Amino acid sequence: MNILEFENTQGITLRYSTASVFDRSIAYLIDLAIVGFVVGVLAIALGSSSSALLILVIAIPILFYSLLMEIFNDGKSLGKMALGLKVVRVDGQYPTGYDYFMRWIFRWVDIYMTSGALAALVISSSPRNQRVGDMLGDTTVIRTRKLRVPLQRILNLNKLSKYTPQYPQVIQLKESQVVLIKESLDQAAKYTNDSYTKLLDDLAIRVAKNLNVETSDTSRVFLQTIIKDYISLTR
Hints:
By secondary structure, this protein is mainly alpha-helical. The strands form two sheets. Strands 1-2 form a two-stranded antiparallel ribbon. A hairpin with a 5-residue loop joins strand 1 and strand 2. Helix 2 packs across helix 4, helix 8 runs antiparallel to helix 10 and helix 9 packs across helix 10. The longest helix has 25 residues. It is elongated.
């Protein structure tokens, strides 16, 4: 399983597993079935129309479905949504219309002209599971996962029954933000290097600024307190 790691706009390092050939193939087949259904409905509805109009109306979903879905649906076609997949840039930035266009235009080479053989070969041999269109657009497809996890698993709630929160402002945070803080602490504990130490320092500064609080604790202790306060006040 290949891993894509990048830093998001909050300075937090995120790690995702990239979609395999199998994942992407199933998503493609789902999309193909959806497009086929839409084309069938249009063909029936326009059965008495002119051939030119029928060809035009049918060609639009066939040709532009993947491009328009990815542009207007945050990098996700319906097939990708069904499998929890999403197109992202490998540097963590938001994909642009040009990025999506490069992926789409090279579908003709990667998938259509080679029956998917070229895409399967390149994805399997790429460290980021990219096909040619992905490489030219600096994108790949990842398995998304919900950031919302049961926070009660992080700490024993019974131990917090008599706990007095230090920063009541933490209720301003979203649960996904608190989970990201916990993940950052876990990563820093696992990889004890200067980069992760700086990550915790920067994260602590941002959290303190957003909550308008001051602390004399170390970054690690402060962030751990933020998690305990949040759980205590919201559970």
